[in-house]
Amino acid sequence: MMYASRKSVMKHLEPFIDEQWPKLLRSTDELWQPSDFLPDFTSESAAEDLAELQEEASRLPEDILNSLVGDTITEEALPTYAQWLASMKGVGQAGCTNGTPWAAWNRAWCAEENRHGDVLAAYLRLCGRVKMREVELTIHHLVYDGMDIQTGSDPYRFFVYTSFQELATLRSHRNIGRMAESAGAPRLAKMNRVIAGDEGWHAKAYRLFIQKFLEIDTDEAVLAIADMFRKKIIMPAMNLRESGGEKGIAFKRFEVLAQRAGVYTSRDYIEIMEFLIDAWELAQLTGLSTEAQDARDFVCALPGRYRKALERRRDTATDETPIRFNWMA
User: Fold this and answer.
1) What residues act catalytically?
2) From CA 211, how far away is CA 205, in angstroms rounded?
3) Other Cβ atoms closer than 10 A to 248
4) Cβ proximity of 92 and 86 under 8 Å
5) Per-domain residue ranges for the chain?
6) Looking at residues 252-272, what average pLDDT do you find?
7) Whole-angstrom Cα distance, residue 286 to residue 243?
8) Hey, which of 144, 196, 283, 307 would disulfide with 174, CB 3.0 to 4.6 Å?
């Protein structure tokens, strides 16, 4: 079956998305909420719980705390991501109750993601080691500055991006959780584990969307995957800046810090790419046009090229030069 446009493909898949709701989403009443991990200030043990939180936070190495702040700021820019998804062909207004199943997915996804920034920001606010006004200024800048993830209004490219990005945030949160556990911060470790679990759940949904595109519009889906991988997947906090700083400068420093700390590295990027290539079974696709076949071959060879480049590159992960941010107390 031939489709005249991306919008017609999205329309064709609406019944499928409706059918998948029980598998794509979990019951709101059963989901964790930020208050599950934070002191309850209506309880008699509130002061003791707060002291315990601050005691564990005092054990966190500064690189890990900075990584946590960066992840929090990224999560708090959710309004930008919701708006971007709503702009995709065939999705529709995110806040409209009578919209497409795709718009309903956007609302549900945002509702689940919203908890991440809430719980992490609350932890930072209570831990006593971070200047929250500086964090808030950086969040304000990030939402104000917006982003360009190079997808245009193409849902194929956007869902390639989110398939990758959800796995990237999964790794970042999971690694911070593991490091927090080692540092003696079990509350933060558990928080990051459950956030990573959410990201994995969302990544599974976005992979499924791409799988459906590959089934019904194979050539165009392959070309979209190749285009996004050729341009490289840009992190959503690409324009991160501190108060008084230029757009994107803080992000470059944050990338170095995350690489050095082992929170999110070049190897993670390559491994995520390999995982998606396998999950979508790109190497097994047949019946492609010449252009799509060339694109498929390019994508499948890319992780190997990146690994060779990584081996040749001088390792900077051992650089111990302190990286300071305005938000550190």
Assistant:
1) 32, 75, 113, 116, 166, 169, 198-199, 202
2) 10
3) 13
4) yes
5) 47-312
6) 95
7) 52
8) 196
Tell me the per-residue pLDDT of 118-168, one tens digit each, with 9 for 90 and over.
Answer: 999 999 999 999 999 999 999 999 999 998 999 999 999 999 999 999 999
With a CB cutoff of 8 Å and minimum separation 6, the contacts of 122 are 34, 38
Confidence band (pLDDT; 50, 70, 90) for 319? low
What whole-number distance in Å separates Cα of residue 283 and Cα of residue 276? 11
Residue 1 pLDDT: 47
Q: What is the pLDDT of residue 323?
A: 87
Q: Give strand ranges (E) for the chain.
A: none
**CA proximity to 264, closest of 146, 329, 160, 174:** 174
The count of residues in the chain is: 329
Record the pTM. Answer: 0.93
CATH annotation of 47-312:
1.10.620.20
Q: Are 66 and 74 in contact (CB under 8 A)?
A: no
Rg for the chain (alpha carbons), in Å? 21
| Banded model confidence at residue 98, pLDDT cuts 50, 70, 90 | low
Q: How far apart are CA 85 and CA 94, in angstroms?
A: 8
Q: Compute the C-alpha angle 269/246/161, nearest 5°.
A: 30
Cβ atoms 260, 317 nearer than 8 A: yes
- Please say if the pLDDT value at position 107 is more than 50: yes
CA distance 263 to 257: 8
The residues, any chain, with a CB within 8 Å of residue 106's CB and separated by 6 or more, are: 82, 85, 86, 91, 94
Distance separating alpha carbons of residues 17 and 222, to the nearest angstrom: 21
Query: Which amino acid, 51?
Result: A
Average pLDDT over residues 312-321: 62
Q: What is the pLDDT of residues 59-77, one digit of tens each?
A: 999 999 999 999 999 999 9
- Smallest CA-to-CA distance from 189 within 29, 327, 51, 59 is with 59
